[in-house]
Each structure stands twice: as C-alpha cells, then as structure tokens.
Write a structure and sequence with these properties.
The chain has 137 residues and is an alpha/beta fold. 32% of the residues lie in helices and 20% in strands. It has a single domain (3-127), classed as HUPs (Rossmann fold, 3-Layer(aba) Sandwich).
Length: 137
Amino acid sequence: MKTILTYGTFDLFHVGHIRLFKRLSQLGDQLIVGVSTDEFNTLKNKSAYFCYQERREIVESCKYVDMVIPESNWQQKRGDIIRLQADIFAIGDDWLGKFDDLSDICKVMYLKRTKEISTTDIKKSLAVASRPQCLSA
C-alpha cells in the first residue's frame, strides 16, 4: 500500500483544498492529512477562523482523505513519516526546498497550488464583502 502524507491549516475549506486532496489521493492508496493545531498555528503567528476540532472534522469529511492527524510542531514530520510508513510527503510549492531533508526516508513532492484561490485571498475578499467568481474545473 502506498501512503501519501501532507500537512496544513486547511482553514476556510475551499476548492483548492479539495483539488489538492484529489491530486494527492491519486498518487497512492492512502492519504493522511496533518491538520495544524490551534497551538501550533499560534507558534507560526497564524490565525484560523475555525478551531482545530472543526477544521479536523471538515478535512475528515472529504472523500479523498483516509486519516487526519494533528500537526503540533515543525519537527514531527520525520517521526510521522516513519511511524505511518509514508511513501510520499507532499506539500504546496510555496514550501519548495524546505523539506528536502526528508528525501532520505521518502519521496518529497512540491505541488503547484490551485490558481486564483487561497485562504488568504478568501479572507481578504470577505473583508471587503465581495464574492469571487466560480472557478472552472
């Protein structure tokens, strides 16, 4: 069985997240998603609209996701890869090169983000009460 592992905050769940999970699930047999805890987001100076438990529940409900684990710190990735026997660690290309050190224990992939959508953009858009157009598939 080929296991894929990724991490993120996954706040304001949107089509970019779904498309990421779909692409990741097509790389193997099992997709495991590490969702950043509220405490870890605080350490990263990042705030989420939804709390960890709600974000976890949302991600767990996605048909492409087989398991959700908490992401509590930067250092846990290596241990998680070994413990979960992940074959591929994949993350957005905005992290390009940051996790190359994990390539000694699994394949490391950096995936292009879905164009024209991001949680940051959604938050900015909501702040001015405009609604983006639907994205094509």
